[in-house]
Write a structure and sequence with these properties.
Blueprint (H helix, E strand, L loop, with lengths): L20 H10 L3 H5 L3 H20 L12 H11 L3 H8 L12 H27 L5
Helix pairs in contact: 1-6, 3-6, 4-6
Length: about 140
């Protein structure tokens, strides 16, 4: 009797080397693309960092508002969550005093849209990095 190795099932998860999922998620939230960088995806990390940071800068340049957490106004609260999803760029903008928002500016709503969408996209990028870290997605 010879023993043969059983083939691995098609849906089996690969063994993952690298930082844990928690470290990857925190890094990906804090700096756009950092989660992918930790797992050797240099090209994706660079593009995510450049594009999401650029979107955030455009939003600030278009007189967008950095929304506060106000539970009394649900849409303002959700916009704040979306903006905080970009981590370090939000902290830098807050520390620099940016994002006051100019309601009279023609580009005000465009600025808000860029700020919110950049944060929402970083949520997706963070989830993608978590999938890579957990082995659900191939490196």
């Amino acid at each position: 009797m010879t023993s043969r190795a059983m083939p691995e099932p098609a849906g089996a998860l690969a063994t993952v080397q690298g930082p844990s999922v928690a470290v990857t998620v925190i890094a990906a939230w804090l700096i756009p693309g950092a989660g992918h960088l930790l797992h050797g995806r240099m090209s994706k990390a660079m593009w995510f960092f450049l594009l999401l940071s650029l979107m955030y800068a455009i939003g600030l340049g278009f007189a967008g508002r950095l929304f506060p957490f106000q539970l009394a106004e649900p849409l303002v609260f959700l916009a704040a969550i979306a903006e905080w999803s970009l981590g370090a760029p939000r902290l830098v903008a807050l520390a620099a005093g940016g994002g006051a928002g100019d309601v009279t500016s023609v580009t005000y709503e465009y600025g808000n849209t860029f700020l919110i969408v950049a944060g929402l996209l970083n949520m997706l990028v963070t989830l993608d990095a978590a999938d890579v870290a957990s082995g659900r997605k191939p490196r």
